């Protein structure tokens, strides 16, 4: 099943190129959820509500996906996690770059993700396809990083990798956008709009095994990145095991799995189009940051 959020915080099921409004289910789920719960109530309720949501979707007419404004498929994650240096070729390309560090500076990038650890992005950085990516510092290097995104489905801590995929609600595409500079990595990667996720969530049962998945990124029609999860240093189960050894994971937590080689600059007006056959297409535009009071 493909689950999206769209327009004014509505819930939908995507079937083909149509979205079927099942917001009534979302309203009931949220009304029954505790205010102080950690994570996203809708994601947490999916196992119990799935059949009812499918039945509701079958009874309501669809509207073209192209005619709605897609939001992030998760409304309230407790956290957004991201794996750095998780593709060897990306580690190599970053180590070789002199435009973002001095030649004699120590190399901070390491292929040893267990030593580097993962990092967090601010929840306020999350956007959906319709919202665009606001480039706040156009005078600095701003770059895209295509990634497969894991959406956690249930609470867990110290999860062994053998059981890790049991904790996955589904998968999406995402961009770990970054502004290059001397500041802390999480700070530079947590700018508003720098964590696009979408276009929707594909449930784990429909998505299948995440160990051999290909995704591509075109920017203004030019192929920039091709990722295959076979090349991950830490695969999906190991990533979940690793994160849960430090954190308690909650339903709706978002996990960026790492970027392959080919990261490159973007500027306002660029069109980023990511595609994965198992998910679909996430198209999002960059735009100038709007200063608001």
Task: Describe this protein's structure.
- The protein has about 290 residues and is an alpha+beta fold.
- The chain folds into 2 domains: about 1-70, no CATH class; about 80-290, Fumarylacetoacetate hydrolase, domain 2 (Alpha-Beta Complex), CATH 3.90.850.10.
- Helix content is about 20%, strand content about 30%.
- The chain is built from 7 helices and 20 strands.
- Strands 1, 2, 3, 4, 5, 6, 7, 8, 11, 12, 14 and 17 form a 12-stranded mixed β-sheet that branches.
- A hairpin with a 3-residue loop joins strand 19 and strand 20.
- Helix 1 packs antiparallel against helix 2 (about 40-60).
- The protein is globular, with a radius of gyration of 18 Å.
- The mean pLDDT is about 95.
CATH class descriptor name of the largest domain: Alpha Beta
Q: Can you say what the CATH homologous superfamily of the largest domain is?
A: Fumarylacetoacetase-like, C-terminal domain
Order of helices and strands: EEEHHEEEHHEEEEEEEHEHEEHEEEE
Total beta-strand segments: 20
List low-pLDDT spans.
Answer: none
* Residues in β-strands, percent: 25-35%
CATH architecture term of the largest domain: Alpha-Beta Complex
Main attributes?
single chain; about 290 residues; alpha+beta; Fumarylacetoacetate hydrolase, domain 2; 2 domains; 12-stranded mixed β-sheet
């Amino acid at each position: 099943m493909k689950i999206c959020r769209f327009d004014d915080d509505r819930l939908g099921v995507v079937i083909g190129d149509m979205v079927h409004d099942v917001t009534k289910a979302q309203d009931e789920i949220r009304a029954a959820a505790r205010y102080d719960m950690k994570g996203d109530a809708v994601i947490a309720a999916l196992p119990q509500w799935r059949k009812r949501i499918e039945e509701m979707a079958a009874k309501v007419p669809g509207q073209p996906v192209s005619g709605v404004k897609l939001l992030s498929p998760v409304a309230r994650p407790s956290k957004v996690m991201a794996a750095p240096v998780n593709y060897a070729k990306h580690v190599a390309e970053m180590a070789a770059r002199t435009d973002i560090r001095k030649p004699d500076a120590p190399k901070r990038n390491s292929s040893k993700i267990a030593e580097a650890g993962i990092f967090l992005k601010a929840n306020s950085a999350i956007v959906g396809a319709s919202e665009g990516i606001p480039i706040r510092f156009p005078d600095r290097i701003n770059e895209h990083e295509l990634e497969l995104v894991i959406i956690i489905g249930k609470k867990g801590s110290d999860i062994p990798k053998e059981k890790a995929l049991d904790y996955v609600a589904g998968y999406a595409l995402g961009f770990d956008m970054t502004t290059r500079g001397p500041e802390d990595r999480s700070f530079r990667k947590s700018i508003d709009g720098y964590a696009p996720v979408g276009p929707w969530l594909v449930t784990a049962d429909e998505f299948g095994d995440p160990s051999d998945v290909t995704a591509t990124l075109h920017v203004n029609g030019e192929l920039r990145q091709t990722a295959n999860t076979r090349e991950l240093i830490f695969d999906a189960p190991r990533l979940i095991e690793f994160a849960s050894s430090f954190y308690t994971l909650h339903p709706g937590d978002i996990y960026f799995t790492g970027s392959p080689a080919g990261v490159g600059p973007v500027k306002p007006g660029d069109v980023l189009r990511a595609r994965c056959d198992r998910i679909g297409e996430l198209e999002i535009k960059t735009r100038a940051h709007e200063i608001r009071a």
